[in-house]
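Researcher: Before we compare anything, I want clean individual predictions. No alignment, no superposition, just each chain on its own. First chain goes here; please echo the sequence and then give the structure tokens.
Model: Echoing the first chain and its structure:
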Amino acid sequence: MSNVETEPAEVTCASSPGGVEVLPPRDVPLGGPRAMRVRRTLPQKQRSLIGAWCFCDHYGPDDVSMDVAPHPHTGLQTVSWLFTGEIEHRDSHGVHAHVRPGELNLMTGGRGIAHSEVSTAASAVLHGVQLWLALPDAHRDAPRDFQHHVPAAVEVNGASVRVFLGSLAGSASPVATFTPVLGAEVVLPAGTELTLAVSESFEHGVLLDTGDVTVGGTALAPGELGYAGTGRPELALATREGARVVLLGGEPFGEEIVMWWNFVGRTHEEIAAYRDEWQAGTDRFGRVEGYDGGRLPAPPLPGGRLRPRGNPA
């Protein structure tokens, strides 16, 4: 999806005695006057990244249609994960694919890529998450790429776990990333208490999609993201009524990034140059074939300089 914000909003985050920080979502419209609305938990001024995860939009279930015209990306990988619905994907790498529930589509837009996203006629309801991974400096000019994977569900103490990136609970994804990360959907039946062995070098985020859940004893409301820092060998999840969560993790990124619109870079000047190239239609981003319509124009740059952002120490 296309990101319309230029700066992360100021949001009050709460920390629990158990060290789990609660990141509340903010409501963001996408796509103009008849905008599709999403709940955004990353980035925030208090926390820009969890591992390399730098963007998290959670949407639906809504009876809406999606029609996002071709738009550009740099310096990132996009991760599409649906719970309900179907989205048609076309990109300038020549890929024409569909995003379906339980199936991972990961697109690499290092030096530059463009893509479109359109919900299909079969999709009465859309419900899912759109995630971005920032590319480390050594790989942020990586060539265009697209990977698809259908992870099998594994049962862990009654819970269902689908690992779409990294490894967890004896399941590993073959999809390649440029930093060590974790991405998984976890479905917890009512009354479940689940302790997952995780990497102590990772920080983790737990996004509550539906139901109720506690993370290390800290309760989350639907749409909230619970952040747990490094040094934890286990992550404890519990639910009374049942829940579905998305678990994100990764080694702390260790680099500051500049995010604006659909670009990830390192300086204001770099972002401005990406914008100019997109507006000029250069070869950096290529062409999306088969989309019925024009490209999405870039918004104007903000009046002030775009500032690099990282995480608090």
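Researcher: Okay. Second chain, same rules.
Model: Second chain and its structure:
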Amino acid sequence: MTEATTSLTGMRFSKGHGTGNDFVLMADPDGLRELTPEQIAVLCDRHRGIGGDGLIRAVRSKHVSDGAALLAAHPDAEWFMDYNNGDGTRSEMCGNGVRVFVHFLLSQGLVTLAPGEELTIGTRAGIKVVSRTANGYRVDMGPWDFIFPEQAAQGGSDSVVSAAGLEVDRPALSINMGNPHTVVALADLSELAGTKLGEAPIVVPAPPYGTNVEFVVPAEPLVRDDVGHISMRVHERGVGETFSCGTGACAAAAAIRFWAGAEAPDVWTVAVPGGEVGVRFFPGAEGREHVELSGPAVIVAEGVIADGMG
């Protein structure tokens, strides 16, 4: 890799989203234009930049240290999703982002992928296998885990969350989806709407590297036609409230399913402010339960960065 560029001028970009979770995307196949956190924050600024919840750089795995380490075991993982939050901080993974990433690779002619075919992608949370569907993409997000398994097993919660708009602190459950999540169940949609996510909720104890926080309302009834239904809002680390969060939707479904008990379904629909995504739990090859995320991906604009930005 080379040193970060001194200027963003002339760089090509695309703007895309998955259920309203939006990203600035850049193709850097040979790993020549790694951006600084400050440059990423400028590009993702919604008033002075392009605007986005994060920035995704498409780079061949061999040119990134995290990606090169994956190639030994997964030589088909040619492409690496280099993802940073909107404030420039690095993030392990983004479920909506990986769908948009694959759609971006297709739009740029960097890969081909017919409906039903799969593409292996490298991320900082490991390998993700993405399949193209008739209406979007589905992603094997890999296994999920409790961040604090002993506390979860003993009492069904492991932390307490306070947020503006909630009169009392709420018990929560922390889920690892390759990145950390803390899930809070609320009573109804009015309580969900009244929760103010302009500032980060306080989680005690917090996972070591911070956490995304999901506020979730189970539908009434929870299960219809063997499918669970929930509604969710989320505050993402380094971003704030977003219209959607793919790994957050998986974590929310995992938590509600755990709380619902052994009879809870394996298929879930998660309503977010930006639309709807699907979540499915299934046995993985290594004996651990995996989570599949499905939903749309859209590229809305392409352009060239003008002089004066960054």
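Researcher: What stands out in the second chain?
Model: The mean pLDDT is 95. Additionally, Residues 246-260 form the longest helix (15 residues).
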